């Protein structure tokens, strides 16, 4: 479930970022840019979560 949530949030944030960046530069909105950014963000989040140590559990 966490992988699906990561992909959904990465897609939403990528779509917003691509919309803002293309609007500021005057270029047409490109969905392939959103897909590439989604893949990069998802892989980055999964890599960081795998590398960082787990927190201590308190009883």
UniProtKB/TrEMBL annotation:
Keywords: Membrane, Transmembrane, Transmembrane helix
Membrane-traversing stretches: 34-52
Listed Pfam families: DUF2929
Superkingdom of origin: Bacteria
InterPro entries reported for this sequence: DUF2929
UniProt name for this protein: DUF2929 domain-containing protein
């Amino acid at each position: 479930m966490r992988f699906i949530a990561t992909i959904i949030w990465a897609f939403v944030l990528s779509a917003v970022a691509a919309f803002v960046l293309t609007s500021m530069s005057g270029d047409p909105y490109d969905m392939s840019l959103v897909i590439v950014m989604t893949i990069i963000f998802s892989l980055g989040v999964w890599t960081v979560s795998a590398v960082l140590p787990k927190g201590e559990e308190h009883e």
